[in-house]
Amino acid sequence: MRQGYWIILDELNLASTEILEAVIRVLDDNRELFIPETQAIVKAHPNFMLFATQNPPGVYGGRKVLSRAFKNRFIKLHFFEIPREELEVILEKLLFRLGNRYTWADKKLLEDPKYDWNQHLIEEGYLVLSSKVRSDLELQIIAEALYNNFKKRIVLSKSFNIDSDLKEESAVLRDIIRELRNYRDRADIVWTRIMTRMAVLTAKALQFNEPVLLVGPTGFGKTTVCQLLAEIHNVKLRILNCHMHTEGADFLGGLRPCR
Prior knowledge:
Helices cover about 40% and strands about 5% of the residues.
C-alpha cells in the first residue's frame, strides 16, 4: 500500500466486520489505514489500487450481505454464469494448451507408438477440469469437449477403482492407485467410489504441489484422506480446527503481553 502495489481482496464478503471497517478507511478520500496494535496510520501511495471479488450472498454458504454504504465505495461490476457456448470455447482452448504442454515437456513421450496419448490427455484434462465445476451439466460439457477434441471417452471405472485389474488401470493414475491399494484393508476406511475419487484427486493435486480444499459434509472422509496421504508420503501432519474465533495468530503466532 505504501509502495503503490495493487491488492486483491478475494472473497470479500467472507471477511469479518473488523476487516471491513478497516477497508472503509482505505476507500475514503484520505486513503489511509489505521493499525490499532501499533497506533500507526498508513497512507496509500498515489498508484495504490484496491480490487475486491466475492461470490453472491445466499447462493454460497457463509457469505454476508455487504451494506449499501460499503458497496457504494466501489464501482460494482456484476457477472453471471458463463453461457454454454462460451464454456465450450474455454475448454477447447485449455485442452489445446494442455496438449502442447505434454508435447513441449518431453519429445521422448511421443516415440512410443503403442501408447495412447489421446487417452492420456483426456484423463489428465478431465481430472484438472472436473474438480473445478459444481454441476453434472458442466461435467457433461467437459466430457463432450474432450471427446470432440480427442475422440476418446473418459472411463471413470478405471480412474477411481482401487480393486480394478492391473490391465484396466488408468495410466495417468496407475502409481496413485497402486499406493492406495496397499491401504484397502484398513479397518478405519471403507473404500467407496466417492472415497476413492477423493483420495485419488487429492493425491494427484499433491503431485503438482497444488493446495487442496476438500468440501463435503461431516464424516465424508476429508480429514482421513489427508491423514492417509501424509502417512503414504511419510510427512508429519498437524490439524488445526478453525472456528469463528480463529485468529491469524493461531496460524502465524503472535506476541502476548506479560502479566
